[in-house]
Amino acid sequence: MNQYKYTAEAAARFNKHGVDLTVYGQADPSVTTVHIRVAEGHFEEFYNVKSSYTIYVISGHGTFYLNDEAVEVNATDLVAAPPGTRIYYFGNMELLLTVSPAWDEANERHVRFLEKNQIPNTPRP
After folding, report:
1. DSSP letters spanning 7-21
2. Which residue, 16, 109, 115, 124, is the most exposed by fewest CB within 10 angstroms?
3. Residues of the chain under the 50 pLDDT cut
4. How far is residue 97's CA from residue 79's CA, in Å, rounded to a whole number?
């Protein structure tokens, strides 16, 4: 029998480098869907060697840094980062992330950790 519905209650929940993640079922190898809440920032710069990251900004505002390029975002904006794009971000936002193909820890690469005092001129509420 196919599973068509995935609930937040059954999802994996954890905090990773400043963001609260709710990771929904990994039943489909083509995509991972993640609900993200971030109050200040994602304090790790990283990239994925195989997957694209598509991020929809549900609410809030902030700045994504994609290969060192600052991209200001607001609610209803969509950020598309192809494989190999270095990513980190700051702001107070609620996000919906899709990772395709599905996220695999073996494909994620750490670049560096950032400190709060390294937040560059990011708009704050």
Report:
1. -TTTSEEEEETTEEE
2. 115
3. 122-125
4. 9
